[in-house]
Backbone:
């Protein structure tokens, strides 16, 4: 019997432990090196199969743009598979938008994985990945389902093993428009010979203050001054703070031996200025939908 619905389907956020800009293609896209790690901060999506071929969406929490990435993902998979089935998607949006945490991309990836199952397509992961990159640079990572060393414009993924870590994440109410960050003069491309920190097999060193940096940070601070304020707040309390993606969320690794307990960090987050959001997050070894597509 075919599935009629899939409820409580997770779409986790991510952090860039570092982000290096290592080149620029002729088409204007920047080439990156980064380490992506999955978090337990997530959106929740619900899917109900429609037999009329229509694709619709309902927002349960934060209103989304009329044509968001999950709708585009659903249409792309519907067209590529030539299915006559449709879907109604309900989204409980918890990951802040404009944060650099990949919320919209994660929603799109979860949509591809969920509809692959709901519509009975049984596509392998590689076939889903062919639809992922045109949707957004972070979508392939979430479809891949594992923490990864990421290169190119987001399409080159190598799974990596990272120790489970706890992070304090804070986002100011303002955001940094990605296009403005990448065109800001403070964004400098590293000389290629000096940027390869080295991919170390399946392992990366534990995230520390000395492991890389976010090359977008200075440009993002110029576009969104609240990022600098967020970095100062976290660095004063926890140290080792940095921005994720193109912002505006920032994070710090919580070391309970040196800083404070998880409960104390949660209490500190309650003191953030009005309009800010924050959470204590734990990294995840794999995407919760990792088994929803064959390799």
Residues:
């Amino acid at each position: 019997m075919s599935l009629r619905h899939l409820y409580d389907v997770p779409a986790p956020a991510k952090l860039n432990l570092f982000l290096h800009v290592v080149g620029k293609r002729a088409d204007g896209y920047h080439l990156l090196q980064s380490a992506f790690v999955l978090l337990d901060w997530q959106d929740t999506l619900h899917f109900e199969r429609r037999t009329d071929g229509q694709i619709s969406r309902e927002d349960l929490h934060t209103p989304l743009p009329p044509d968001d990435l999950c709708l585009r993902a659903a249409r792309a998979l519907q067209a590529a598979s030539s299915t006559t089935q449709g879907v109604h998607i309900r989204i409980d949006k918890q990951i802040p938008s404009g944060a650099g945490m990949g919320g919209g991309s994660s929603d799109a990836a979860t949509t591809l994985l969920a509809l692959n199952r709901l519509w009975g397509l049984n596509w392998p992961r590689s076939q889903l990945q062919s639809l992922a990159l045109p949707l957004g640079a972070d979508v392939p990572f979430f479809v891949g389902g594992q923490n990864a060393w990421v290169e190119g414009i987001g399409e080159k993924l190598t799974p990596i093993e990272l120790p489970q870590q706890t992070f304090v994440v804070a986002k100011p109410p303002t955001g940094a428009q990605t296009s403005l960050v990448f065109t800001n003069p403070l964004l400098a491309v590293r000389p290629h010979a000096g940027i390869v920190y080295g991919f170390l097999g399946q392992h990366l060193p534990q995230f520390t203050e000395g492991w890389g940096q976010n090359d977008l940070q200075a440009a993002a601070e110029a576009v969104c001054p609240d990022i600098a304020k967020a970095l100062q707040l976290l660095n004063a309390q926890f140290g080792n703070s940095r921005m994720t993606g193109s912002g505006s969320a920032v994070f710090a690794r919580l070391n309970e031996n040196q800083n404070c307990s998880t409960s104390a960090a949660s209490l500190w987050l309650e003191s953030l200025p009005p309009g800010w959001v924050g959470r204590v997050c734990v990294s995840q070894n794999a995407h919760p939908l990792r088994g929803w597509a064959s390799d």
